[in-house]
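Reminder to self: tokens first, then the designed residues, so the page reads top to bottom the way the pipeline ran.
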């Protein structure tokens, strides 16, 4: 989501090829043009943002402009440097940045957030703007390009993490300002459109990591048998963005990916425990599912699953771990992407007439492709069989529409995490059973926006404590803890739980809580720095799990798949069928009835990929046609997998003695 590539009308083909040549040449530093913008914002700049004297804080500037009617070819880049007619479509604001350096970045983390907003003259499809930013450097090169071209949005936003300084004049003849060009253009504009731009420079001290140490917890790793895995009716592997939850009464684990639902039964009399796989997919879930979701309501032990079947939500319910199923109804209105489902108690006072057919509330949320339209969340009072009309979430705020997985706390508070609320990450929170959704933010969080993983929340049993896991704007896996429902003024300082392993890039943070003081987060991590979206990225990724036993004051982190990489190469986060989108959009984590952590993931590196550090996509048929296992010419496999905790303190203190008996004194925590 968030990336759009339009078609090229026949009359634009020659123009686009010429533009492409200019883009390649200039981004490489060639072609000495006199790059003075054809159109200028008000004021035109350059305006300078400087780091506050204390080294910590934020400074902002704003500008306004009018973008002419027209359509930008391909809607992928707003140009002001080609010497072609397209330059006349772009409104440019020049920004300089001072007070930053490599030495400053040893102790601080800085983000430059650029955002444009507008109120559409007609609607957000007829008046749709795009944003491109880049640095015109000291040598006259154009570097550090960022683009944001969302479909039908009322805002565009880009973020620079630790941006290079931009001051003074270039060495060109004639000299030009060394500055960031903040360019706004019409992706599709039926009429001239006014807009407002803001640029914010935020400086924070590096997040805490002194309270994180390597752990001694151990995990067993289970790849699904290749002969067990299935494909949907379109031939796509039923692996990728898996869901997992544990039935605390039966001891079984439920797992869903694509159009296959699995019941895992554990034989703990064996060492390591043996897993048996039973396909319990009902007919209505077995055809095509987008964004499949599974959750278990631990108050009733009901398994609830959902899949986006074309344009409608496909909901099924089971009270016996998939032996039999009841079909639910559609949620209306709902949106076509990023669906999520979860159940829990009603917030008091409960709505009149509820709790009769089913004791808990069940919530279903999904996001619109059109970002300005936000997301919808609906509530069921019948355990998912029927639904009340949905309410709108995020629309009219500075948050995007794309969200993480909804969670219901023990007091009935509902949390919907969000990876981009202005310069922070945050969430919509409902204290009234889904009627209203005010926004809360993690104050020291940072975001890279649309290429970021979704954050994850876990409300604790005390009904107030909330754990929040996220991928920050610098590639770190972070966790923050709120002492009171995520409200302002109640957050701990974020902790970089990947620090003991030197993690430089992370994906798919997923959070779970047991006792109030005990929680765990899983994430994919690599020690390789750089752009993990690039096809040339060479990182080796593993699955990590971090534990806290004191409400986030300290953490211990372990590599849960040592010597068995999850992926080699890039992990694509922008939709489509890129070969390295084989893992899709998320993983999931749960805790079983004895406190053992279980995490579902997609194993993208199997067979010879495990022992051979080689990345090859030449034989890949995109991610949708992927092989279950890695091959010599397509190392990006797609196989369902799960890790299950063997030793180390779990998340329920009541079972510490059992862990000690199984694993020795202390349990290895």
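Designed residues (669 positions):
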């Amino acid at each position: 989501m968030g990336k759009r590539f339009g078609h090229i009308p026949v009359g634009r083909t020659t123009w686009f090829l010429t533009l492409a040549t200019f883009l390649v040449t200039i981004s490489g530093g060639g072609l000495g043009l006199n790059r003075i913008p054809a159109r200028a914002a008000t004021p035109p700049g350059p305006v300078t943002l400087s780091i506050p004297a204390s080294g910590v804080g934020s400074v902002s500037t704003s500008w306004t402009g009018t973008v002419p009617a027209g359509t930008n070819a391909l809607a992928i880049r707003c140009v002001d440097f080609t010497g072609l007619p397209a330059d006349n479509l772009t409104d440019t604001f020049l920004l300089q940045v001072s007070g930053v350096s490599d030495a400053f970045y040893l102790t601080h983390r800085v983000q430059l957030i650029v955002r444009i907003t507008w109120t559409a003259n007609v609607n957000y499809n007829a008046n749709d703007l795009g944003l491109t930013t880049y640095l015109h450097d000291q040598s006259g090169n154009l570097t550090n390009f960022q683009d944001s071209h969302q479909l039908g949005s009322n805002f565009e936003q880009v973020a620079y993490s630790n941006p290079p300084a931009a001051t003074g004049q270039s060495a060109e003849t004639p000299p030009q300002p060394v500055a960031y060009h903040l360019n706004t253009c019409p992706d599709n504009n039926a009429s001239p459109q006014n807009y407002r731009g803001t640029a914010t420079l935020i400086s924070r001290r590096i997040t805490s990591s002194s309270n994180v140490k390597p752990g001694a917890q151990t995990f067993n790793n289970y790849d699904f048998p290749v002969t067990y895995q299935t494909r949907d009716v379109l031939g796509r592997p039923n692996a990728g963005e898996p869901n997992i939850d544990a039935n605390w009464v039966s001891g079984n684990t439920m797992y869903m990916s694509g159009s296959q639902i699995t019941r895992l039964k554990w034989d703990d009399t064996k060492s390591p425990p043996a897993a048996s796989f039973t396909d319990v997919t009902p007919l209505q879930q077995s055809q095509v599912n987008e964004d499949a979701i599974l959750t278990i309501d631990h108050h009733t032990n009901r398994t609830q699953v959902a899949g986006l079947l074309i344009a409608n939500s496909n909901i099924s319910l089971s009270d016996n771990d998939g032996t039999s199923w009841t079909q639910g109804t559609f949620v209306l209105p709902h949106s076509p992407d990023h669906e999520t489902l979860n159940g829990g108690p009603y917030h008091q006072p409960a709505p009149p007439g509820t709790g009769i057919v089913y004791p808990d509330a069940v919530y279903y949320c999904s996001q619109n492709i059109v970002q300005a339209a936000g997301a919808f969340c609906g509530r069921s009072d019948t355990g998912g069989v029927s639904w009340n009309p949905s309410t709108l979430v995020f629309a009219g705020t500075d948050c995007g529409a794309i969200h993480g997985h909804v969670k219901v706390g023990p007091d009935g508070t509902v949390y919907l995490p969000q990876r981009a609320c202005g310069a922070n990450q945050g969430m919509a929170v409902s204290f009234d059973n889904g009627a209203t959704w005010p926004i809360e933010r993690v104050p020291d969080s940072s975001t890279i926006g649309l290429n970021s993983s979704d954050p994850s929340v876990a409300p604790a049993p005390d009904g107030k404590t909330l754990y929040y896991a996220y991928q920050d704007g610098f590639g770190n896996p972070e966790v923050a803890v709120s002492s009171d429902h995520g409200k302002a003024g109640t957050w701990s300082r974020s902790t970089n739980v990947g620090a003991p392993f030197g993690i430089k890039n992370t994906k798919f943070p997923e959070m779970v809580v047991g006792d109030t003081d005990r929680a765990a987060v899983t994430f994919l991590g690599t020690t390789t720095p750089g752009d993990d979206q690039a096809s040339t990225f060479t990182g080796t990724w593993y699955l990590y799990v971090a534990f806290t036993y004191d409400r986030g004051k300290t953490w211990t982190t372990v590599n849960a798949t040592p010597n068995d990489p999850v992926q080699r190469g890039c992990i694509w986060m922008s939709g489509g069928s890129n070969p390295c989108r084989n893992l899709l959009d998320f993983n999931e984590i749960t805790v079983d009835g004895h406190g053992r952590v279980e995490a579902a993931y997609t194993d993208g590196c199997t067979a010879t990929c495990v022992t051979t550090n080689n990345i090859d996509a030449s034989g890949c048929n995109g991610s949708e046609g992927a092989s279950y296992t890695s091959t010599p010419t397509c190392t990006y496999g797609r196989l369902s997998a799960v890790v299950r905790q063997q030793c180390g303190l779990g998340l329920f203190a009541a079972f510490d003695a059992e862990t000690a008996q199984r694993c020795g004194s202390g349990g290895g925590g």
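DSSP finds two helices and 39 strands in the chain.
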